[in-house]
Design a protein that fits this description.
This is prephenate dehydratase. The chain is α/β, with parallel strands linked by helices and 280 residues long. The chain contains nine helices and 15 strands.
Length: 280
């Protein structure tokens, strides 16, 4: 079995690459062209773990993940919060007044609107932040710049024309660590988060009754998001994070009541809550 390899979506120097280096220093990284490729690398055993972004404090959820994760057969075994910083990168010797266009991932462009407007740059969407830095280096055109992490500037030999250009200082992305095997922490080992998906029965007040189980059992729900499945407007699936371990008596009772009102309940992972949560 392949070990000490962690997969991520993007090119070397992307934020996901930085998250891998922060959490698993010394591990080899496997860059993947798409989220689907990253999920496949974990599922097929080419990587032991995966580092996947699931939501951002400015742009909200990463929509693709909510569709891939429930049916992937993978388990969430950890989480990590990465403060997101973007820098305006250009060719060696380029100046901001030389620029006409800026390239990056759609989320990065959306998170750096102020500097784009200030300098009248044309934003151009690319598949990846670090990939845009590589392309700027390859094009050799001083009128083109990239919005990317500092690691990308170092990898692709670009100058930093402006630092920390994100619109909001609180810009943070939450990543989940995925594995083929569940790795639940022992009961009582510390603050634990449980993530699950469910679909309520299509009857009046089903969602209200299902969520009531968590209120009556004093379970703190930190996130609930709905999205359609199979193209059916009446068949919403919900992705939920709650504080607690599935073996905690209160959470176990809440999940048992939830199953009574739901067509399906699947736990995607129980894992240590990241210390970042304590400061939010």
């Amino acid at each position: 079995m392949t070990s000490k390899i962690i997969a991520y979506q993007g090119e070397p120097g992307a934020n996901s690459h930085m998250a891998c280096a922060d959490v698993f220093p010394g591990w080899d990284t496997l860059p993947c062209a798409s989220f689907e490729d990253a999920f496949a690398a974990i599922g097929e055993g080419r990587a032991e773990l995966g580092m996947i972004p699931i939501e951002n404090s400015l742009n909200g959820r990463v929509a693709d993940i909510h569709h891939f994760l429930p049916n992937s057969g993978l388990h969430i075994v950890g989480e990590y919060f990465l403060p997101i910083h973007f820098h305006l990168l250009g060719l060696k010797g380029a100046k901001i007044e030389d620029l006409r266009s800026v390239y990056s991932h759609v989320h990065a462009l959306g998170q750096c609107r102020k500097i784009i407007r200030r300098h009248g740059l044309k934003p151009v969407v690319t598949g990846d932040t670090a990939g845009s830095a590589r392309e700027v280096a390859e094009w050799g055109d001083k009128s083109r710049a990239s919005l990317a992490p500092m690691m990308a500037a170092e990898i692709y030999g670009l100058d930093v024309l402006a630092r920390f250009v994100e619109d909001e200082a609180h810009n943070t992305t939450r990543f989940v660590v995925l594995s083929r095997e569940a790795r639940r922490p022992p009961l009582g080992a510390g603050p634990t988060l449980t993530t699950f998906v469910f679909r309520v029965r299509n009857v009046p007040a089903a969602l209200y009754k299902a969520l009531g189980a968590f209120a009556t059992n004093t379970i703190n729900m930190t996130k609930i998001e709905s999205y359609m499945v199979n193209g059916k407007f009446a068949a919403s699936q919900f992705l939920v994070d709650v504080e607690g371990h599935p073996e905690d008596a209160n959470l176990a009772r809440a999940l048992e009541e939830l199953r009574f009102f739901s067509e399906e309940v699947r736990i995607l992972g129980a894992y240590p809550a990241h210390p970042f949560r304590a400061g939010t």
